C-alpha cells in the first residue's frame, strides 16, 4: 500500500511535469524509484496513469470556455455544412490527432509497461528528444523571422494528424507528451502558444483513455494501493497541474523551449551517471 506521503510526492511530480516538456512518466519513474516503489509493478504503473485524472480536470477547468466553444462549433458543423468555420476544423484536428496514440498505446501496452520502464530508457530519451526540440525551435525562429507562422485559425486537419502521430513517441518514458506535440506543432509552422494549447487539448482524450483503461485492467491491484491515497494523488496533481498550465502559457508567449532542453539534457546525463555508478537501479 502506498503511504500518503508517497501519494503527495507523486501527485506533485505528476502535476508539475505533465504539461511541461520534460516527461512526466520519466520523472514519475525516477520518483517511484527514490521512494522505494517497484517501478515495474503493474499496479504502480496504473496508479501513475490514474492520478493523471487530476491533470485532466485541471485542463478542463482552465480551458472550459474554449473547449465548450470548440465542442459547440463541432456539433453545429456536423449538422450544418454552412457553419463549418475555423473552430470546427480545429475541433476535428484535436479529435484526429488524439487517435494514433490510443491505437499505438493499446497495441504496445506490453512493451510500454515492461521493457520501456527502465531508467536507462528515460535517461536516453531525455537527452535524445532534446535534439528534436532544438530542431523545432530553430524552425520556429526561421518562420517567425520570415513572418510565415500560422495561428489558431489556420490549423488544419493535416496538422492535427501529424501532431497526433508525433505524440506516439511520448509513449517512450523520457520523451514527454507535451514535448512531442509542441515540437510537432512548431515544425508544422504553428506559433508556439497555439502549439502549446493544442498539446493541452490533445492531452484530454489521451490521458482520459489511458487512465480508464489502466483503472479497469488493474482494478484489483489498485485496491491494495489505497483509495484514499489515489484521491490524494489526484487532488494534488490537479492543483499543481492547474498552476503549471497557467505558468507555461505565459512562459511560451515570450520564451523559447531551450530552458527545458537544457534541463532535460542535464537531468538525462545526471540520471545516466547515477545508473552507471550503481547509485540507482534501472528497474
Task: Provide a brief overview of the structure.
The chain has 283 residues and is mainly alpha-helical.
Could you characterize what this model shows?
The protein has 283 residues and is mainly α. Helix content is 77%, strand content 0%. The protein has helices at 4-17, 24-34, 42-50, 52-62, 64-79, 86-107, 109-112, 119-146, 157-167, 177-187, 192-217, 219-225, 227-254, 258-276. The longest helix has 28 residues, at 119-146. The mean pLDDT is 88.
Descriptive terms for the model:
283 residues, mainly alpha, 14 helices, 77% helix, globular
Classification by helices and strands: mainly alpha
Main sheet attributes: strand count, strand direction, barrel closure: none
Which consecutive residue ranges, at least 5 long each, have pLDDT under 50? none
Strands, total number: 0
**Mean pLDDT across every amino acid position:** 88
Compute the gyration radius: what is it?
A: 19 Å
Q: What portion of the residues fall into strands of 2 or more residues?
A: under 5%
Span between N and C termini? 19 Å
Q: Which overall shape is indicated by the principal axes computed on the Cα atoms?
A: globular
The helicity comes to over 70%
Count of helix runs: 14
Order of helices and strands: HHHHHHHHHHHHHH
